[in-house]
Amino acid sequence: MAAAPLPMDARRPSHTFGPQTIAAIQRMAEEGHYEIRGWGAKRVLPTFDDLVFLTASVSRYPLEGYRERCETRTVLGARRASRPLELDIPITIAGMSFGALSAPAKIALGRAATAVGTSTTTGDGGMSEEERAASHLLVYQCLPSRYGFNPADLKRADAIEIVIGQGAKPGGGGMLLGQKVSDRVAAMRTLPAGIDQRSASRHPDWVGPDDLRIKIEELREATGWEKPVYVKLGATRVGNDVKLAVAAGADVVVVDGMQGGTGASQDVFLEHAGIPTLAAVRLAAEALRELGVEDEVQLVVSGGIRTGADVAKALALGATAVSLGVAPLIALGCNGRTWVRDGVAHDATADYRALGTEPGYCHHMHTGRCPVGIATQDRDLEARLDPEAGARRVANYLRSVTMELTTMARACGKSDVHNLEPEDLVALTVEAAAMAQVPLAGTTWIPGRS
Amino acid sequence: MCGIVGLHLKNAELYPRLGELLVPMLDCMASRGPDSAGVALHDGHAMHVVKDVGPPVEICVRNGIAERGGFQGIGHTRMATESAVTTQHSHPFAPTPDMAVVHNGSFSNHATVRRRLARHGIGCTTDNDTEVASRFIGHQVAGGADLADALRMVLKELDGFFTLLVTTGTQFAVLRDSFACKPAVIAETDDYVAVASEYHALAGLPGIGDARVFEPVPEEVYAWTR
Ligand code: SF4
């Protein structure tokens, strides 16, 4: 006998006012402020997963995995800098501040990048001694806040990245809540400890491309025209912004899509500002092509890149390299159930629960109570992360991603990962076909073109 | 998937027989390329390109190729891979009035190189990968590069599998990619240099028994100058 059906209206969720929305409204009513959190956009977005490769078969031939070389070497910044960055792999580590991250986390990222022959990046908080020592190639960010920005560190950097925006919150400034502003962090930023910090959303000494040109020249002069100058953009009006960055003199343009992560931001930014990385990379590549500088100015793409497949797709669509932030943190142990000391694993589930979350769902960087010692300034918590073991894990991860990348490139018949091209891709959805401007699988149709 | 042949004559007495020697070589390659065929002949005054859809012998007969003389020629039989079977898409491709290129293999980044050439004002008339390579070589030579250097640039810029054969008013050159998967054999005597995708295309040449026969090694440009 069939069970009695539920009454028609029982537990019928509203799409507009679903349980999450109801909870959010009630929390705002209770507390009187918007939600701040870490991580990145959590909503479903068109991604690189909506593209697939047309690998080789009869009309083209694949390369052998063992015997036949697939080059991954990557040069960034040769346009104007006398000492461009020479990387072994087209995968770099994105800017994440000491402050948002613990010292052991920054050391681990630097050592991992060094081990695999790539660069890592400072963040909104300056360059720490440990980080400089751990990183063979270190990109020094110049942010609106100018926290910890000084001529001495400028000279110790290998490249300079002028940050105009980031994908997680294009148009917004950095944020570090008081619980993470330790004495050391405060000293590096010349600000009081324990107070919420909201970084500027505009640079203090210039706005717009005309003045950016002067700023870039100033930085070049200060560093003897040696170091590449990157300009990092949060992906919004990508076509215009990339062209303006090039006109202002950038050697490298970094475009960060809306899936990019952050230590803390308003939820409204994370979910509602910027465009997905998939659309951003294509627009940026197109802008460089329209200017005829695609072989001169390198495009670095970031925002939600996780696997070698993502890297391969970004490269095929026109990036020279990618930049990873959240993924290396996950490799370090973020959202892991345990942390390890002296070979003994300790369960952190209770600490996640204390934050109101579970391993696998945590986005609580903003609290400074990171259960695995990554996004914290708390002495006891940061001691949970062993930088050496962490570096090994991140290096393993980066090597695996590189192997995935070369596997795909070889299967497409490429002896250099940079020879991947848009024509190697088709899309599984109409949205992805339109955003990436590649044909919908099984057709020759590119929305908007034919 | 395609057959290529070429003949660079050193002995002037053979010049009147260029077409007569080249046509059987091309016919031998018919099974490698049943879709279309073509030749480019240098007679000392100009380069003549003849290509069409159909079996090589028919095309050669129709155009009286066997009766033509010259000091150097190349030929191609095509099995189309990714672009259409038309006369336009057939080899040889002539990027300049004096240069022609035939190719066996397939390039894997020709769309990118095509865009790069377009930036320099070099347009392609077809979507064929070999046309891209031929225009790339033509562009390098027009920019002052020696043919051998232009071919070395192919190794740098073009990815994929290829054996390339190039004829110009003064030079004859062969290049295989680093994998050297697409076959090629060269026979050299005091009278000529002959190139083909397969040995049997060379078997009927005069004095072949005494020729130095070898397979070109990967990434090495072999060039002969008149
Ligand atoms: S585990 Fe730590 S690093 Fe990962 S999301 Fe939570 S707080 Fe952030």
UniProtKB/TrEMBL annotation, chain A:
InterPro entries: Aldolase_TIM, GltB, GltB_archl_type, Glu_synthdom. It holds the Pfam family Glu_synthase. GO terms for biological process: glutamate biosynthetic process. The keyword Oxidoreductase applies. This is FMN-binding glutamate synthase family protein. One of its GO terms (molecular function) is glutamate synthase activity. Belongs to the glutamate synthase family. Residues 75-335, 361-414 form the Glutamate synthase domain. SUPFAM superfamilies: FMN-linked oxidoreductases. The keyword Cell inner membrane does not apply. Keywords: Oxidoreductase.
UniProtKB/TrEMBL annotation, chain B:
Transmembrane segments: none annotated. The keyword Iron does not apply. Keywords: Glutamine amidotransferase, Transferase. This is Glutamine amidotransferase type-2 domain-containing protein. Residues 2-226 form the Glutamine amidotransferase type-2 domain. GO terms for molecular function: transferase activity. Gene3D superfamilies: Glutamine Phosphoribosylpyrophosphate, subunit 1, domain 1. It holds the Pfam family GATase_6. InterPro entries: GATase_2_dom, Ntn_hydrolases_N.
